[in-house]
């Protein structure tokens, strides 16, 4: 049961009071603090510890320490809190502090022990000192902690402390577990974070805090911008290549913003306003174009691929609709008609300007699709002896995406590629190799065109062209962002950075963090000097006009303090980097050697170790009972390539996690076993020349041994994967022994230890590295990490070790899917179908509908895929699959159900369902966007003109014609008189309606139409004549054919046609007193003449003819 909030407030209240007293410097009260620790402990402390009692049980353990202040140029004394707890807890912490203080440099101890200053009231004031680099001074010996002798709690204590702030106190009192707090920074980190004058390049190896500096620089500028900008918060963009890292940074930044002090958004207002928090929802919640980004969207954190998608949708939108004119308020006040057409009230939000299908099949070629879908299709002579990863990297990073392609945005020609320096393109240096790679590139381009796919460079170049060709688009994109921050920039390509520089024309707005030593990703050939060249090209003119040369040169910051690893590992890593710089200076950036905070074991070479020794799990001996050891979740075996991995995995089975160097990049383990790295090296001659790489002038032949660039980078990545122990295990010692001797004897102090199979304790020492514990939770966690990295085969091993059936089923499903894709590319469609079906079964077992649908799409089973989404109540995802299955009516119905009316109409058009389309457009006219309605109306007109629709659909089709005049002409052409009459009524053309009824002989309708005439019409002579004729014909017709076309006669017409009514009564009268004299008595001559003629022709009255005299007959 958690403690009641009232108890937390009461307990923390006394703690807070003492913390404030310590911070105030008012320490005159004799019982505020007392020396902490036993007498023996106090003798070991280099800086005194003090304790302040808060109540009978709780005390605060603290000391004077040194930290950077806000200026980044000075340091000052601070109160460092080690622990708040009871006596037992404080005693345990004091022992740890004794260990930690052993690593304090002498200068730091002196500064901590200096007596504080005093003000007039005798309050203590902290002393300040000039800030120095975080790394040790030349010649200074620092006694570091040893990772083997300190526990995890000590290691956690040494790294990070937090500044006590008012927001932190409020969060504790509020029991807010969501907020995150900024920790204290080193002097070097503070200088990076607070540099605002220029753009920045932050260089540092793994674990030096590059990402941390980038995030807090963003937050520092965000808070400063919010204080200065009255109308909106700064629009900052943070990019990563990893979706996993992007999600973590989204969450972390949101937590940090919640804990920042309140500031005023409007500098002229006195009241405080909370910082606007970023919108860090799921991917489905994110905007689709830059026009949808609002103030609350920033800081905007996403992957580079997500940004490309955002830009692509923006370009497509502009091509269709032009530039919307919207202010911030209007964006949230879109008419209901548009909203209903653009979204579904669920996670299926999919605006119409996005592609019409949300296909799960990859549309872009990445390293995985290149390996699975392309590589098996290439001729054998093109892929012979080529590593698939390096080939793809060369095509994307050099031939298509290098800085040489910037101007033309076209791939390098065969000649230009062949002439590239080996330092620019070190992966393939021989002429025959480059010819083979270029032939492969041409085959790849042709196959990609055939498959109608794009790769990352195609996407970027298309966007760069769009920006270059449309200045307004460029200005609009540039106005969306104020700053761009890029983490792990070495994983981007030159053209990626060119796109960003093309959009945002501000020389101070870019902040990059990365490590060129880690550029072994699948498609990156990054160099920091390329960024410098791009900066010069983009900002030279602006810098000259503004007389600000600093715009041309991003400020370079180097971080050397490593928080992740110990000095035993970092010593070797630093030497590798030094050799890389000496031999290949254009491929890596010169940095100071990395410095670790703690000592640790040196890497160990195990020479002449065969696979059986590595696989052995038996530790039995004469002195010890038999024990079975295994590799743990925090251990990994790293090998050079996939073939070595497959052989070793066959021997070890599921005992250990085995990764290639490339697969291990970005991962961390407590222990790493590097297997046969030197034994299997393709460049043994280069490793034998290590002594020539010790200095810049060591006569190393970089052209002859160009492959050593990649070798050294891979070795560096492998070395830096471990946090504690590195074991370099070689089955042969021919080459490895020379490397080991150099690293042990040809350096100022040994960087490695060496043992061989002939040593008596060799096997015992090797097996002592194995784990004796089995933690299912750690294995499961490792499996999920590998799943996110799409390393499914390795994840299966982890899940098996964790006995995680669900995880194993999921990973196996992905493996089946990959095998299906590979077999499809190889042409074995039957076997591929079996694997896809197995994957589908596994995915459905786990209710992973998206993944199951993706496999069904590969099988072209679109109807089955659509029905899965229908069963899951996702109509918007089912609809495009119905369309792919040729079931366009079903597709339209599901688009309509998802309230995506434009696409519902599109589906009917795509399926040539003419009558359905006409009906749908007519019934949903108000729900369709103006663009869609106009487009589909034109289609309906074409259908009408070409008689593609039945007669029963003519009316709705004609109703969709562009103008009333066109509709009138169509109704006339098709003799659709009733519909034409309705059109006249809508247009209030009552005169035309009257004439229509009169012309077609609908006299009753014409008679009623007379009453609808306007006064202006009634004054027209022609209309009056027509009215009279209509009335005459109508009443005459009723006399000749009673009740035919009979209508109710309005009162005003009855009074004006009294003679006709009298005539009608006279004719229909059964009285026998009918006579011509009564006809002669009618005043209306037309009525009278009609009756006379009617009487002559009516057979009932022919008997009267004989009684007429000649004169009378002649008159008639």
TrEMBL record:
Residues that coordinate or bind ATP: 204-211
One example GO MF annotation: hydrolase activity
Signal sequence, start to end: none
Keywords: ATP-binding, Helicase, Hydrolase, Nucleotide-binding
Segments forming domain UvrD-like helicase ATP-binding: 183-566
InterPro entries: DNA_helicase_UvrD-like_C, P-loop_NTPase, TPR-like_helical_dom_sf, TRANK1, UvrD-like_ATP-bd
Region (Disordered): 322-353
Superkingdom as given in the UniProt entry: Eukaryota
Presence of the UniProt keyword Nucleotide-binding in the record: yes
PANTHER family, alphabetized: MAMMARY TURMOR VIRUS RECEPTOR HOMOLOG 1, 2 MTVR1, 2 (PTHR21529), TPR AND ANKYRIN REPEAT-CONTAINING PROTEIN 1 (PTHR21529:SF4)
Protein name per UniProt: UvrD-like helicase ATP-binding domain-containing protein
């Amino acid at each position: 049961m958690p403690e009641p909030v009232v108890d937390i407030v009461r307990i923390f209240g006394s703690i807070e009071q003492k913390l404030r007293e310590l911070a105030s410097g008012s320490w005159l009260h004799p019982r505020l603090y007392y020396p902490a620790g036993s007498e023996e402990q106090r003798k070991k402390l280099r800086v005194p510890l003090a304790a302040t009692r808060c109540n009978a049980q709780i005390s605060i353990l603290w000391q004077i320490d040194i930290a950077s202040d806000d200026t980044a140029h000075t340091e000052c004394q601070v109160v460092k809190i080690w622990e708040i707890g009871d006596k037992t807890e404080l005693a345990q912490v004091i022992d740890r502090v004794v260990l930690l203080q052993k690593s304090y440099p002498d200068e730091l101890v002196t500064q901590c022990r200096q007596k504080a200053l005093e003000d007039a009231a005798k309050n203590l004031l902290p002393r300040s000192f000039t800030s120095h680099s975080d790394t040790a001074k030349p010649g200074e010996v620092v006694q570091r902690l040893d990772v083997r002798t300190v526990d995890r709690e000590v290691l956690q204590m040494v790294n990070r402390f937090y500044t006590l702030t008012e927001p932190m106190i409020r969060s504790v009192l509020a029991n807010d577990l969501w907020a995150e707090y900024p920790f204290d920074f080193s002097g070097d980190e503070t200088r990076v974070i607070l540099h605002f004058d220029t753009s920045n390049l932050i260089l540092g190896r793994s674990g030096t805090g590059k990402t941390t500096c980038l995030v807090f620089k963003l937050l520092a500028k965000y808070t400063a911008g919010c204080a200065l900008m009255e109308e909106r918060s700064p629009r900052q963009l943070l990019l990563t290549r990893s979706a996993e890292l992007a999600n973590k940074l989204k969450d972390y930044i949101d937590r940090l913003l919640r804990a920042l002090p309140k500031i005023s958004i409007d500098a002229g207002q006195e009241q405080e306003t909370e910082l606007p928090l970023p919108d860090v929802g799921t991917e489905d919640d994110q905007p689709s174009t830059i026009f949808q980004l609002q103030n609350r969207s920033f800081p905007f954190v996403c992957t580079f691929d997500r940004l490309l998608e955002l830009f692509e949708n923006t370009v497509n939108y502009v091509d269709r609709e032009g530039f919307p004119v919207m202010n911030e308020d209007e964006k949230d006040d879109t008419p209901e008609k548009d909203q209903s057409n653009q979204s579904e009230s669920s996670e299926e939000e999919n605006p119409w300007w996005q592609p019409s299908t949300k296909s799960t099949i990859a549309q872009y070629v990445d390293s995985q699709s290149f390996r699975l879908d392309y590589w098996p299709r290439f001729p054998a002579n093109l892929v012979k002896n080529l590593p698939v990863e390096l080939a793809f990297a060369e095509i994307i990073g050099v031939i298509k995406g290098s800085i040489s392609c910037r101007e033309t945005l076209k791939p390098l020609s065969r000649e230009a590629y062949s002439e590239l320096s080996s330092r620019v393109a070190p992966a393939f240096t021989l002429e025959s190799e480059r010819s083979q790679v270029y032939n492969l590139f041409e085959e790849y381009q042709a196959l990609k065109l055939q498959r109608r796919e794009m790769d990352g460079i195609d996407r970027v170049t298309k966007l760069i062209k769009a920006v270059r060709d449309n200045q307004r688009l460029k200005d609009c994109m540039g106005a969306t962002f104020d700053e761009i921050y890029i983490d792990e920039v070495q994983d981007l390509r030159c053209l990626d950075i060119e796109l960003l520089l093309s959009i945002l024309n501000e020389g101070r707005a870019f902040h990059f963090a990365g490590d060129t030593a880690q550029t072994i990703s699948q498609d990156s050939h990054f160099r920091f000097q390329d960024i410098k060249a791009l900066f010069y090209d983009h900002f030279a003119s602006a810098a000259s006009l503004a007389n600000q040369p600093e715009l041309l040169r991003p400020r370079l910051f180097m971080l050397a303090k490593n928080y992740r690893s110990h000095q035993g590992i970092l010593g070797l890593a630093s030497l590798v980097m030094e050799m890389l710089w000496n031999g290949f200076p254009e491929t890596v950036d010169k940095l100071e050697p990395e410095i670790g905070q703690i000592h640790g074991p040196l890497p160990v070479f195990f020479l002449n170790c065969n696979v059986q020794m590595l696989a052995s799990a038996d530790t039995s001996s004469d002195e010890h009972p038999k024990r079975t050891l295994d590799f743990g979740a925090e251990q990994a075996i790293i090998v050079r390539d996939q073939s070595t991995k497959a052989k070793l995995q066959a021997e070890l089975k599921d005992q250990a996690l085995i990764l290639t160097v490339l697969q291990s990049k970005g991962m961390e383990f407590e222990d790493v076993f590097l297997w046969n790295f030197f034994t299997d090296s393709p460049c043994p001659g280069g490793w034998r020349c290590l002594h020539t790489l010790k200095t810049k002038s060591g006569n190393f032949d970089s052209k002859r041994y160009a492959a050593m660039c990649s070798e050294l980078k891979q070795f560096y990545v492998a070395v830096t994967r471990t946090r504690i122990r590195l074991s370099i295990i070689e089955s042969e010692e021919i080459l490895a022994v020379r490397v080991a001797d150099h690293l042990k004897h040809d350096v100022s102090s040994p960087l490695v230890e060496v043992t061989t199979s002939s040593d008596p304790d060799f096997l015992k020492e090797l097996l002592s590295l194995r784990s004796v514990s089995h933690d299912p939770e750690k294995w499961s966690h490792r499996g999920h990490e590998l799943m996110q990295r799409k390393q499914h085969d390795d994840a299966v091993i982890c899940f098996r070790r964790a006995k995680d059936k669900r995880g194993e089923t999921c990973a196996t499903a992905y493996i089946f899917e990959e095998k299906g894709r590979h077999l499809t590319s190889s042409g074995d469609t039957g076997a591929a179908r079996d694997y896809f079906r197995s994957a589908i079964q596994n995915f459905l077992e786990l209710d992973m509908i998206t993944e199951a649908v993706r496999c069904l799409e590969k099988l072209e089973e679109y109807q089955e895929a659509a029905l899965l989404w229908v069963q899951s109540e996702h109509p918007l995802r089912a609809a495009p699959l119905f369309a792919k299955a040729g079931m366009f009516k079903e597709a339209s119905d599901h688009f309509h159900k998802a309230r995506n009316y434009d696409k519902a109409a599109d589906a009917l058009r795509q399926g040539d369902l003419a009558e359905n389309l006409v009906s749908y457009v007519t019934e949903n006219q108000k729900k369709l966007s103006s663009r869609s309605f106009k487009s589909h109306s034109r289609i309906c007109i074409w259908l009408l003109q070409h008689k593609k629709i039945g007669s029963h659909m003519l009316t709705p089709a004609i109703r969709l014609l562009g103008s009333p005049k066109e509709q009138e002409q169509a109704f006339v052409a098709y003799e659709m008189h009733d519909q034409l009459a309705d059109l006249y009524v809508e247009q209030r053309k009552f005169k035309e309606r009257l004439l229509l009824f009169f012309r077609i002989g609908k006299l009753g309708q014409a008679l009623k139409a007379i009453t609808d005439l306007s006064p202006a019409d009634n004054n027209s002579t022609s209309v009056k004549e027509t009215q009279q004729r209509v009335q005459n014909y109508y009443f005459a017709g009723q006399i000749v054919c009673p009740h035919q076309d009979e209508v109710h006669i309005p009162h005003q017409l009855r009074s004006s046609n009294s003679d006709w009514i009298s005539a009608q009564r006279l004719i229909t009268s059964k009285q026998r007193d009918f006579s011509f004299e009564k006809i002669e008595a009618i005043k209306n001559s037309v009525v009278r003449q009609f009756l006379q003629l009617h009487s002559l022709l009516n057979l009932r009255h022919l008997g009267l003819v004989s009684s007429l005299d000649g004169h009378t007959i002649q008159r008639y």
